[in-house]
Amino acid sequence: MDPLTIAPGPGLPRGLVIPAAELRERFARSGGPGGQGVNTTDSKVQLSVDLATLTVFSDAHRRRALRNLAARLDGTVLTVSVAAQRSQVRNRAEARRRLGELLREAVAPPPPKRRPTRPTRAALRRRKAAKQRRSEIKANRRRPMSGF
């Protein structure tokens, strides 16, 4: 098995390479349709990594990943299961892509806080004018008043 390469992104400016020894790959039979080979081919892939023992993470990355992925973890182990394709090779590639994406998003720093701002007077005026135009359009759809 090859090491998992995570592309650079927020929180990982130089990217990351997880050694193959720290990944665990298991195979199983996929459910669902698949033709004659469905009962004989182990095409489902489960790719796991233990975040607590991951050597390439800094302590800050580890804390952030454990906090952000808490709902997906079994203890400290993150597992990705893929059975989308009939081919084990394609499922392995997809599992690696998904795991890399999850880890990159998990270690990304939170976005900066939004500074509260107030709408400008011109924006308020435009909004009010648009509401007035819309009101007139709807008023013109009504039946004309009769009885004169």
UniProtKB/TrEMBL annotation:
Alphabetized Pfam families for the sequence = RF-1
Query: For the Prokaryotic-type class I peptide chain release factors domain, which residue ranges apply?
Result: 29-45
Q: Gene of origin?
A: arfB
Q: Which domain of life is it from?
A: Bacteria
Q: What family does the Swiss-Prot or TrEMBL record give for this protein?
A: Belongs to the prokaryotic/mitochondrial release factor family.
Can you name this protein? Aminoacyl-tRNA hydrolase
In residue numbers, the region (Disordered) covers 100-148
Q: Which Enzyme Commission numbers does its entry carry?
A: 3.1.1.29
PANTHER family documented for this protein = PEPTIDYL-TRNA HYDROLASE ARFB
Question: What InterPro entries does the record point to?
Answer: Pep_chain_release_fac_I, Pep_chain_release_fac_I_sf
List all Basic residues biased stretches: 112-132
Identify the keywords attached in UniProt to this record, alphabetized.
Hydrolase
**SUPFAM superfamilies assigned to the protein according to its UniProt record, in alphabetical order:** Release factor
Single GO molecular-function term?
Answer: translation release factor activity
BP terms from Gene Ontology: rescue of stalled ribosome
